[in-house]
Each structure stands twice: as structure tokens, then as C-alpha cells.
Amino acid sequence: MKKIYFVAAVCGVLLVAACAVLIQPKSQAAQTFSVNGHVIKLEIARTPVELALGLGDRAFLDQDAGMLFVMPLRARHTFWMKDMRFPLDIIWLDEDKIVDMVTLQAPTSSDFVPIYTPQLPANRVLELNAGEAQKLGLQSGTQLQLPE
């Protein structure tokens, strides 16, 4: 009898986990945007899990690729380089207008993880490989046409 309750409990837990996965909103498929003649493929992070993980724990980011973080609120969102293995350009946007940007190096030690808080509030953040923002001619005030 105890075995039946145990199997039923395990099945119940698995069912709840499966439902949670199925009803969690999925991020949109990769989209692209163009800036100064260059096409950039974007992954879009919208869910709390996607926003927290970002590009962390990846070995690299493809050339001409990036991640767009769509934040639920306009604020001065702090970003850090936890679990990052490569440097990034981090670009904060208020809608489609760049309000701040920085290039951050991957941490060399887990004891100190660099963080950065933008000067102005933003509701979207774009991460590109380090040096891409300069190569694309991006600067504060630049307007981009990013996917929704």
C-alpha cells in the first residue's frame, strides 16, 4: 500500500513539473535586426529564468549575434558577469534609444564579479560580443529598430 502512495506521489510531482514547463511562456524564436548595414541575430529573454540566466555559462556567442533582455519595468537594471567566459558589450535602452553602454570583461576569479549599473533607467538591454558596439557605430542617443 505504501508503494502505491509513493508511486502516486512521484507521478503527481512529475505531472506538476510537466505542467509548469508547458505553461511557462516561451521566449520568441531568434529574431534579427539591422544596424548600419549589419544584420544581428537576437535571442530574446523575457521570462524570469531567461532574464536571470542570460548568456551565463556559455562558451561563446556567435559573431553577429546577441541577446535582448526585455525587462518588465523601466529601471536602472544592474548587470554582472557571473559565469561569463567571454567579454561583452552591454547596452541599456529606453525603448529603442541607447541610454548607456559599457564593455565588461569576463571575470578571472569567482571571488570578484564585475557589475555595472547604468546612469539612466532602461527597459531593454542588449548584449553583444565585446567590440561590436564600436564596430557598429553605436553610442548613447543612437536609435535602434529592435524587435518587440
Short note summarizing the structure:
With 148 residues, the chain is an alpha+beta fold.
Low-confidence runs of at least 5 consecutive residues = 5-28
CATH-derived architecture: Sandwich
Total tally of structural domains: 1
Structural class by helix and strand composition: alpha+beta
Strand order of the largest sheet: 1-2-3-8-5-6
Specify the biggest β-sheet.
Answer: 6 strands, mixed
CATH superfamily, by name, is Protein of unknown function DUF192
What does this structure look like?
With 148 residues, the protein is an alpha+beta fold. It has one domain: Jelly Rolls (Sandwich). It has 3 helices and 8 strands. The protein has helices spanning 2-23, 48-53, 132-135; strands at residues 31-35, 38-45, 65-75, 79-80, 88-94, 97-104, 115-116, 122-129. It has a 6-stranded mixed sheet with strand order 1-2-3-8-5-6. Strand 5 (88-94) and strand 6 (97-104) form a beta hairpin. The longest helix has 22 residues, at 2-23. The radius of gyration is 19 Å and the shape is globular. The N and C termini lie far apart (54 Å). The model is unreliable at 5-28 (pLDDT under 50).
Fold topology:
Blueprint: H1 2-23, E1 31-35, E2 38-45, H2 48-53, E3 65-75, E4 79-80, E5 88-94, E6 97-104, E7 115-116, E8 122-129, H3 132-135
